[in-house]
Write a structure and sequence with these properties.
Layout: H1 2-55, H2 59-66, E1 86-94, E2 100-109, E3 115-123, E4 131-138, E5 143-145, E6 149-151, E7 155-157, E8 168-170, E9 174-176, E10 202-203, H3 219-229, E11 232-233, E12 237-240, E13 248-249, E14 252-253, E15 255-258, E16 262-265, E17 267-268, E18 270-276, E19 280-282, E20 285-286, E21 294-295, E22 360-361, E23 365-366, E24 381-387, E25 391-393, E26 398-412, E27 417-420, E28 434-441
Parallel strand pairs: 4-6, 4-7, 4-26, 5-27, 6-8, 7-9, 8-10, 11-15, 12-16, 15-18, 16-19, 17-20, 18-24, 19-25, 24-26, 25-26, 26-27
Antiparallel strand pairs: 1-2, 2-3, 3-28, 13-14, 21-22, 22-23
């Protein structure tokens, strides 16, 4: 019996010892590979950092890259070996979205067996949003088009303004009533949409990528411009039925500057830069003089419509929203609703098909194909708005540009629409280069 037990133990050892030995050897190999891979990734990160510092070295570098130029050593033409453990390459190119620079950095460990690469996109505007507010309230049939909403405090949506578009970012809660429930009121829960990218509509409690720090344009610069141009107001001002279709003075944006409160009422259209250091009331409607204005949405407008499109506003599925399927097989219409952008035309204003923008007239809709079911309005304002106090907008106010009120509430009601204009250059804001997104990509050997 004892002999049998000894033989059994010996047999067990004969079987297991080689397996343990093989596991230990493989574990060592895996650890080495993982370390080499991590080294390559850190080298790629170093390349991104070096590319960024080159970008902000002077204003000329930004202008050169966005004009499709190149910088020696930063055009995938040099291998850097200044960091122990391997080498890396850097490539700076202009972005597809306009007014963007893309940095791609690839890292290689010293053995030459492991490569990692990172792609980062930078913008010169600190506000990549249609509306940026201290907090945001939207009711009635308010709609934000072609760009996201961002709030420092809570965001609250009600009525038909509560839709699954555009993207929403808040440093606090996102409350809602109507067709769709609160997005998030619990800082301890899941602080972004429950689906995986790209089917994410909201980010709360500053969940990355988060809400950029509040900033303001160059106040002194614009005050002086308004004084020079004759549009400076030192006291409260109520302006009704303003129509001014000239957006520039010479080669510069026309600037209206208000030291205190301003109110615009009636049928109006004007353009340029509007700075109000107090409260701003924007009511009434647009003026017919704007009806000839046709624009093409920026090339990434479709990103606001990955979960649903205005064509299917209010569409729902059974069960909790976290179980809904927003995809559309082959991105081909028709498919179950709600769904993101597909190959169909006119699912949102200026939609020319899957991830394609086309010319859009605010009064008549699509100019290339026509869409007879579109009911538009005249524009009230085109350009950039900064408000130091509270912004109250109502009626059928339509704005094409950006609205920035970081210190107080943005209250929108009625049928207000704000259409985001990408690539705007605002003094004091466009001098700040910020990273808007990044992700790892498949590396190329070098």
């Amino acid at each position: 019996m004892a002999i049998m037990m000894v033989l059994t133990v010996l047999l067990f050892l004969l079987i297991t010892i080689p397996m343990i030995d093989l596991y230990v050897k493989n574990e060592a190999k895996w650890s080495v590979k993982e370390k080499k891979s991590a080294t390559a990734f850190h080298l790629a990160e170093a390349g991104i950092d070096r590319g960024y510092w080159k970008l902000i070295e002077n204003s000329t570098n930004w202008e050169l890259i966005t004009a499709s130029g190149t910088i020696s050593g930063y055009a995938n033409d040099k291998i850097y070996t200044d960091i122990q453990g391997g080498s890396y390459k850097i490539n700076l190119t202009t972005g597809a979205g306009g007014g963007e620079v893309v940095i791609i950095a690839a890292g290689k460990d010293s053995s030459g067996n492991e490569y990692r690469a990172i792609k980062a996109v930078y913008s010169k505007s600190s506000i990549s949003a249609a509306v940026y507010g201290g907090d945001i309230e939207a009711s009635g049939s308010v709609e934000i088009v072609w760009g996201p909403m961002m709030s420092i405090d809570e965001m609250e949506l009600s009525g038909s303004s509560n839709q699954l578009y555009p993207r929403k970012y808040s440093r606090s809660s996102i409350k809602a009533s109507g067709s769709y429930d609160d997005r998030d009121t619990d800082i301890g829960g899941l602080n972004k949409g429950p689906k995986s990218d790209p089917y994410i509509e909201w980010w709360s409690y500053n969940e990355p990528p988060g809400v950029p720090d509040p900033s303001q344009p160059a106040i002194s610069y614009y005050r002086q411009k308004a004084q020079d141009q004759g549009y400076y107001y030192s006291t409260d001002k109520n302006i009704s039925n303003l129509v001014d279709t000239t957006c520039t003075v010479g080669s510069e944006d026309k600037v209206r500057f208000f030291e205190q409160d301003a109110e615009f009422t009636g049928s109006k259209y004007f353009c340029g830069v509007l700075i109000v250091l107090g409260d701003l009331d924007f009511t009434g409607s647009g003026a017919s003089e704007s009806e000839s204005i046709t624009v093409t949405p920026h090339s990434e407008a479709w990103k606001e419509y990955q979960v649903n499109v205005p064509e299917h506003a209010g569409a729902t599925e059974g069960g909790p929203m976290s179980t809904w399927d927003f995809s559309c097989p082959g991105n081909t219409h028709p498919c179950s609703e709600p769904h993101g952008d597909t190959d169909a035309l006119h699912e949102y204003p200026g939609d020319g098909g899957y991830h394609v923008s086309e010319p859009f007239n605010f009064k008549n809709g699509c100019t290339a194909h026509g869409n007879s079911d579109f009911s538009g309005e005249s524009l009230s304002f085109q350009g950039y708005i900064y408000v130091g106090g509270e912004l109250d907008s109502s009626g059928s106010t339509w704005i094409y540009g950006m609205v920035h009120a970081p210190n107080d509430e943005v209250d929108m009601s009625g049928s207000v629409k704000i259409f985001y204009k990408g690539g705007m250059e605002i003094e004091g804001l466009d001098s700040i280069i910020t990273r808007t997104r990044w992700h790892e990509i498949k590396p190329a050997a070098f």
